């Protein structure tokens, strides 16, 4: 599992491969009543970024293998960013998720539409 890479593209591996990170889930025999072949443990990723750059990118890739059914997924929770002027890892701050922002935008659009109808 590679958690990060340098701007040059060189991979940084914070955790070497560990088979205990994988939870097998054979169909009909697994812990969970889903058709995924397996699951992973919860991962917590922490890393420093280059403060001289104005933009940082988090790229998450998943793969599906061993069958012709595309049944892979990734769940992301608790995404946090940090603003720190002293260097090092500071206290995390919440980062708005795109889905939450889309829901907020749709809600505001609905409010504007209802106000427009009342005014007309």
UniProtKB/TrEMBL annotation:
InterPro entries, A to Z: Choice_anch_L, Ice-binding_C
> Which part of the chain is the Ice-binding protein C-terminal domain?
94-118
* Coiled-coil ranges (or none): none
Q: Which Pfam families match?
A: PEP-CTERM
The protein depicted here goes by the name Ice-binding protein C-terminal domain-containing protein
Provenance organism: bioreactor metagenome
């Amino acid at each position: 599992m590679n958690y990060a890479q340098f701007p040059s593209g060189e991979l940084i591996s914070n955790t070497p491969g560990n088979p205990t990170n994988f939870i097998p889930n054979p169909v009909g025999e697994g812990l969970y009543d889903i058709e995924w072949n397996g699951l992973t443990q919860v991962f917590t990723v922490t890393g420093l970024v280059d403060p001289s750059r104005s933009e940082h990118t988090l790229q998450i890739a998943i793969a599906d293998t061993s069958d012709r059914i595309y049944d892979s997924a990734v769940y992301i929770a608790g995404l946090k960013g940090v603003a720190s002027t002293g260097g090092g890892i500071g206290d995390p701050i919440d980062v708005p998720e795109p889905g939450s922002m889309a829901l907020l935008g749709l809600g505001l659009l609905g409010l504007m539409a209802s106000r427009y109808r009342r005014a007309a």
